[in-house]
Amino acid sequence: MAVQNVTTPPDFVIAEALRESTHSPCQSKRGAAIFELVDGRWAQLHGLGHNAPPEGFLCDASDACKQVCRRTAIHAEQMAIARGWQVRGCDLVHVKAVDCVLVDSGPPSCVECSKLAILFGLVHVWLFEASGWHRYPVREFHLRSVFNAAAKLGAEAVK
Asked: For the chain, which domains are there?
């Protein structure tokens, strides 16, 4: 089986990202796993991360905290890259969980994470969206993140 024919991340990678999301103190539980497909058949984990405030900052999981955390928290992708080893050439899976169940994470929208994905040489970013898993080439993920972030800013400016 060729790597380009893979339509979902490996089940154990999804499970690890979901497990990692349970470590988040934030209201919005996010997890990430960096993995490498080997011969298109199995995967090796290279890093795990969850969203959390920087050390020394508290998260009370309130709506007010969520508004601040959106801009100050360490994102799951950032933590997975920082904790990872040999991530160049790997894929990253991002999950959002409610009660440890996978839910729609929405489209690419984090410019900071997309820039790091490019800088560290990741190949694809996987997101679970309403229509299922999407495997974005990292440069497309970045462009969509920039576009979607700009659209959000424009919508907030109109309010």
From this structure: 3-158 (3.40.140.10)
